[in-house]
């Protein structure tokens, strides 16, 4: 069976149109229809329902065919890539996904070392929400992503990078909405360092969270849920730096991971509290389970692990 027929069927499935698929494949639409008809005759089944004026939909047999065709094409591409890498070594492209909250803190030094060792590798950074990156990684659009657990997509594998503590972030100045106990603790810098607080003390405070689709938002919501409350969300943002800036101006509180705190430009104008539940987040390298993990991606993991040990 001609491998091109797999590509044809998959493109029709993706576009839901013979005309659009033909344009993407750079072939004439009648020729595409003829090739699919020949394929259907060979298989003895109809792959697509063709109704005038309606999107083309796969039949049950067609859906089975395109899903298997996609796996076969991926295996073909992975084999070609692996053979080429064995011949030429580490070169080509590496597409790395990360969220803003993580990428800006982990990737600069990691990529500097990577480029020093593998200058022939072109790197493309893809910065999106956790939800979007999971999908792009599972589809093979992104080679490897740096995300936080949990990753619940069965199509993905993970490799642990680090686990770090989370802190409650408050403004330096006392605010009317702050609990009395917190105001008392904030009056003494010594007490701040000595005290830990339960998250439930802040049940009635305004929270500043990351937007829907970011994994860290889920981490904060689960932390509040364990404290027995649903946070009162005052503002939502896609940047932890923006969240801290809003806190600095007394507009609410937020939660931040340790790496962000250590490199924050707002350290001197914010107050950081430890929580008595000692919450953490775990970062992982994430990549597609059923695809060949390129030498480029494996080299990134190895460099990170060596750097961590030093």
Automatic annotation (TrEMBL):
Domain HTH lysR-type: from-to ranges: 1-59
Pfam families with a match to the protein in the record: HTH_1 (PF00126), LysR_substrate (PF03466)
Entry keyword set: DNA-binding, Transcription, Transcription regulation
GO molecular function: DNA binding
Top-level division of the source organism's lineage: Bacteria
Entries under InterPro entries matching the protein: LysR_HTH_N (IPR000847), LysR_subst-bd (IPR005119), WH-like_DNA-bd_sf (IPR036388), WH_DNA-bd_sf (IPR036390)
Family: Belongs to the LysR transcriptional regulatory family.
Official protein name in the record: DNA-binding transcriptional LysR family regulator
Organism listed in the record: Neobacillus ginsengisoli
């Amino acid at each position: 069976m001609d491998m091109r027929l797999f590509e044809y069927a998959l493109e029709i499935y993706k576009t839901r149109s013979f005309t659009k698929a033909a344009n993407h494949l750079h072939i004439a639409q009648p020729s595409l229809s003829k090739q699919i008809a020949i394929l259907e005759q060979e298989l003895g089944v109809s792959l697509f329902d063709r109704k005038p004026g309606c999107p083309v939909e796969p039949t049950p047999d067609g859906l089975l065919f395109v899903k298997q065709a996609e796996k076969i094409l991926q295996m073909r591409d992975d084999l070609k890539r692996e053979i080429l890498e064995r011949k030429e070594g580490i070169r080509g492209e590496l597409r790395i996904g990360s969220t803003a909250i993580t990428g800006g803190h982990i990737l600069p030094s990691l990529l500097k070392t990577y480029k020093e060792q593998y200058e022939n590798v072109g790197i493309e950074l893809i910065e999106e929400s956790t939800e979007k990156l999971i999908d792009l990684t599972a589809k093979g659009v992104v080679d490897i992503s740096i995300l936080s657990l949990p990753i619940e997509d069965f199509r993905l594998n993970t490799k642990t990078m680090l686990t770090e503590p989370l802190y409650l972030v408050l403004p330096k100045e006392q605010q009317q909405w702050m609990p009395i106990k917190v105001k008392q603790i904030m009056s003494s810098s010594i007490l701040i360092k000595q005290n830990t607080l339960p998250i439930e003390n802040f049940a009635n405070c305004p929270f500043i969270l990351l937007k829907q689709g970011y994994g860290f938002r889920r981490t904060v919501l689960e932390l509040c849920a364990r404290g027995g409350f649903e946070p009162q969300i005052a503002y939502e943002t896609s940047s932890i730096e923006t969240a801290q800036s809003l806190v600095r101006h007394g507009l609410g509180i937020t939660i931040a991971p340790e790496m962000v705190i250590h490199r924050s430009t707002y350290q001197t104008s914010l107050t950081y509290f430890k929580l008595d539940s000692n919450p953490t987040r775990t970062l992982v390298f994430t990549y597609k389970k059923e695809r060949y993990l390129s030498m480029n991606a494996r080299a990134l993991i190895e460099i990170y692990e060596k750097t961590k040990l030093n």
